[in-house]
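Hi L.,

You mentioned the student needs an example of a multi-chain input paired with its predicted structure. This one should do, with 331 residues in total across all chains.
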Amino acid sequence: MMGQPSKARSDLAGRNFLVIGRVGMDLCPTPAGTATADAQDMMVAMGGSGANIAAGLVKMGCSAALVTSVSDDAVGWYCLNQLDNYGVDRTHVKRITGEYRTSLAVYESRVEDHQSVIYRNNAADFQMTVADVEAVDYSQYSALITAGTVFAAEPSRSATFRAFELARAAGLPIIFDVDYRPYSWPSPEVAADVLSRAGAMSDIIVGNDEEFGFMAGGIDKGLAKARTLAETSASVVVYKMGPKGAVTFADGQEIRTGIYPVNALKPTGAGDSFMAGFLASLSEGRPMKDAILRGSACASVVVAKPGCAPAMPDLAALEAFLARHPGATEI
Ligand SMILES: Nc1ncnc2c1ncn2[C@@H]1O[C@H](COP(=O)(O)OP(=O)(O)OP(=O)(O)O)[C@@H](O)[C@H]1O
Ligand SMILES: [Mg+2]
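Structure written out for the whole complex:
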């Protein structure tokens, strides 16, 4: 149905998102520009892609609930407090005991020689179970959002596939950020297979050029893979190209969008902020191109500042950024 907003998009109007994904602690050496190896002081913030997306959505005026598990220790409690501070519903965040730990990310606020070190040994979030996702009342939400890492290990993988079934049965669109992080997976072959299966079940798919290339078996085949998904199973597919912009397949159209150039302080957080800005804008009923551009603007705001969740703009900050920026590049 060319030109008609698809069903998946009209469903977002409730603006109440269920996010399956992790929450963790981020540490960044301060001041900006400091190498971790030389650090004397660190800034602490909430992190983890699921929590970041949820926090970004709330900042943009939506509601969001997170489904995951954290270690029942001071780092896990920090995450729970932060979710409260950001206004993310944590009813479905379970505390677990044992040797599992909430994940930790130590990353630098600099682009040149950037180092990101992620601690995911015995990650608590991978302990999310089928019973955990079956405890959620899907009918309360407008859509289910997830990102690739939840599929990297069991029992989280089976639990997320079960959540997809339950969400689908409740009529929710499934929104999937491929977000492939090799370090979380047993092998690239397993990752390519599982991520492709998840992609085939999703209504809105967001990924970067490398991720679509990875699922397709070669970087040169990624764009065609994104187009094929949009022609077959998905209603919207966003193929992101970092600082080169994005190509979006929706309603039989290919929409090319640029970026809002900024002085990037770090490469991290672009994808999560893009997702939050994009979905919040779509759920307001904005046209596809406008929503993509607003997601890009949210990403620009985040890469230009230290931190991820703390750097994400609220609606007023996004409007202020758009008002003073000369405009997006054309591609
Ligand atoms: N340096 C930058 N300056 C401005 N905008 C950027 C920059 N990097 C990324 N963006 C914007 O963010 C969007 C998403 O970025 P990208 O394609 O890097 O996603 P990603 O690889 O999923 O990110 P992440 O590494 O956070 O997961 C891009 O389409 C672009 O609009
Ligand atoms: Mg990403």
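You could point out the following to them. The chain has one domain: 7-324. The pocket of magnesium ion (ligand 2) is lined by residues 177, 179, 208, 271 (CB under 6 Å).

Best wishes,
N.
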